[in-house]
Amino acid sequence: MKRVKDLAQLQWIALSLSPNIGAATLSNLLHHFDHDLDAALAAPPHELMRVRGVGAKIASEIGAIDLDRLAGEVKAWGDEGISILMRGDADYPAPLSAVEDGPPALLLRGKPPAETWSKAVALVGARLPSKEARYITLGLAMKLARAGRAVVSGLALGVDTAAHTGALSADGVTIAVLGSGLLRIYPEANRALAERIGAGGALISQTHPCWGANAQRLVARNRIISGLSQALVVVESEIEGGAMYAARFAKEQGRTVCAFDLPASGNQRLIAEGAVVLRRDDPLRDLPV
Predict the structure, then answer these.
(1) What letter does residue 4 receive in the DSSP assignment?
(2) pTM, whole model, 2 decimals?
(3) Distance from first CA to last CA of the chain, Å, rounded?
(4) CA distance 196 to 181
(5) What are the per-10-residue average pLDDT scores of the chain (289 residues)?
(6) What is the distance between the alpha carbons of residues 67 and 11, in angstroms, rounded to a whole number?
(7) What is the CATH T-level fold of the domain 114-285, as seen in this structure?
(8) Are 204 and 107 in contact (CB under 8 A)?
(9) So where are the chain's domains?
(10) φ, ψ for residue 89, nearest 5 deg
(11) Phi, psi for 44 (deg, rounded to 5)
């Protein structure tokens, strides 16, 4: 992996991987301490809690950071094929750089082609899709792959699995954004699929590699799925489905939201709100990418 060049990079990684510090809070910390990471990490709790977004819990997390231990972990992650991409680096995905609250650091496993980030389309949907939705997903993923587009999804069961599988079956590139760490693949049932994805595409996470999935991380990964993509396609989702988070984030990020005209309540809501409607027989015709 790319080596951590100096102490400042290690400090940045430590803060980026703290479980409750997001991009906005990290920005507030940098502003408060005049971009002096030494000062931020050495500050007492009462000083840290003067920063907007920092309460006792986050102050405690910062105080517990062990840079020596992290340096050893970073080396071990590299031995596992994990790279760390820091916002501002040349190899950080350009679409996410343009998103205001893009993750301060990303962990990546795999070596996707350099042009991947400019040609990505996200496919998301239900974990228990209808047979029709599964068929639609497989077909669209294959068509996108053959057209030279990278397929982005979240490695979940159902539509996500069909999206990754379809792209791989067409010898295309697919990107899986995880709600867990890269060394704690979730769901376990997709571990073999994750290995196939990493061989020619990439696995991406903003979470410490050894941490498991939880509800917060699974929701947060949707912001990365949409942020990496030119357009986001909801194949099938009910209103309360996780794919609806991805659609909302995509709108906030200025991405095009598309949906198939299926009976699912989420699809119908998105269409009523102006989503691009895709045809089941030839979705590429209407996909605006």
Answers:
(1) P
(2) 0.93
(3) 32
(4) 17
(5) 67 92 90 94 95 95 94 95 91 90 92 87 98 98 96 98 98 97 97 96 96 94 96 98 97 97 98 96 88
(6) 7
(7) Rossmann fold (3.40.50)
(8) yes
(9) 7-88, 114-285
(10) -70, 155
(11) -70, 160
